Amino acid sequence: MNHTYSITQNYIGGQLVNGQSNKLDVISPVDGQLISKVVLSDKQDLDQAVIKAKKAFPIWSQKTIKERVQVFYKFRQLLIDNLEELGRLVHLENGKTVGEAKAEVMKGIELTEFACSLPQFINDEIQIVSQGIECRTTHVPVGVVASITPFNFPAMVPLWTIPNALALGNCMILKPSEKTPMAAIKIAELLTKAGLPDGVFNVVNGDKEIVEAICDHPDIEALSFVGSTTVAKIVYKRATSNLKRCMAMGGAKNHLIVLPDAHLDMAENIVASMAGCAGQRCMAASAMVAVGNIDKMIAKICQAAKNWEAGNNLGAVISQEAKERIESYITEAAALGAKILVDGRNTHPKGKENGSYVGVTILDNVTPDMKIATAEVFGPVLVILRTDDIDEAIRIENASNYGNAASVFTQNGSLANYIMDRVSAGMVGVNVGVPVPREPFSFGGWNESRFGVNDITGKSSISFWTKIKKRTTKWNAEDWKDWMS
Ligand code: NAD
């Protein structure tokens, strides 16, 4: 199939605008074709967006939250109406299957529904604290904020932040991944169509340079970042050293601890966790700790792996560079003694030979000292580490620098609780391969998977996107019986 390519511009003040002349090719991992050239903005482009956002802020922030969420009721319907179009864009720019791409938009719809319910979650408090003296709180928007997002969920991760931050009264600059900038522009257009006032939401495309400019911009009060741990650390340090509020989500290495009594039908779930979205999920299963003899389960997992066909129900990885990186992890582990049970290297689906595909790969006898056991591989690769001891399995999980997800597979409730109590991850599951909490629960890992205090979605995000004002009132002097100040 031949694609015609377009220019992915910025979206500032409710309009598509050209940024500076530098542009970067956007290559579809599906088949290696050029699908767009994205503007690489500079500081002046960011300034334009911040000026528009600052101008929009007083009017937008002073609306009631009930008024603001009306936009998101309409936006939700527009996401439904544009599911096919958004799904197609995400598929082309990211490489995941059309079904996976539509599923991430569906998740975006759920996130938008949560934002529509924010008026019910903002529980401001009022109390008579002394005779005649009243204290009350109000949640106040932070101001102009930024959201910096990765390539792996071009629609869903922006929608982790946009509906909540905006419904809570902020104005936003989104900086999508330069590898997958197209869905974000479509989202911006739909927000305008839903009635969002110009300037409340802006997209500034670009790379490292624009992220640094966001961290340094004096008029951006808060920023959320989602991406690799290496960059999360840079962004968190730079933004907070400029005295900004920041939460930065990083990478992951998620462990599955599988006990001998695990139900064998869970094999498909385990493979779906590691192979879904070609393993490019920060919640993907990556290391399986096999406790005792679970050879039957491993055989079933290898069998289930055969149901995943690259270029069909197994999508592409983001680039040729990513494919080479993933394959080199596999080759290096094999050279060090890991046993390849299923080998996904050298996968070139017919008709998509220029795409970037890695087949499902399963490696046994991996040891904790191998790079593949600890690094975030970010591909459809599952490594198996073996032990006979549950506490040793927990130690292996605890040794990871990351801490997004961990799951246990067993039918024994008390062992499941024992393990869940001891793993060092923010999102844990029992017989669940991808333990993503659903709204109103919040999404966020521990350790080097998240810097800052808040989670990025759900109820926890409310305190990130707002400031609390505490108002104390006294009127009638005769009532001040036990006032302390
Ligand atoms: P990335 O860190 O390379 O890029 C993320 C963003 O940072 C992009 O917008 C990019 O333009 C920008 N960026 C890249 N290098 C930069 C630099 N040196 N300085 C400043 N900005 C820079 O991440 P990615 O490859 O796009 O995404 C995959 C990563 O994201 C994985 O590590 C994955 O685990 C992680 N992720 C984490 C979560 C989570 O919630 N913890 C969710 C999704 C993805």
Could you characterize what this model shows?
By secondary structure, the chain is an alpha/beta fold. It folds into 2 domains: 6-251 and 445-470, Aldehyde Dehydrogenase, Chain A, domain 1, CATH 3.40.605.10; 254-430, Aldehyde Dehydrogenase, Chain A, domain 2. Helix content is 38%, strand content 21%. The protein is built from 16 helices and 21 strands. It has a 7-stranded mixed β-sheet with strand order 15-16-17-14-13-18-19, sandwiched between helices. Helix 13 (371-374) links the parallel strand 16 (361-364) and strand 17 (381-387). Helix 3 (83-94) packs antiparallel against helix 7 and helix 8 (208-216) packs parallel to helix 9. The longest helix is centred in the N-terminal third of the chain and has 20 residues, at 43-62. It is globular. The model has no long low-confidence stretch (mean pLDDT 96). It binds nicotinamide-adenine-dinucleotide (NAD). Nicotinamide-adenine-dinucleotide binds next to helix 8 and helix 9.
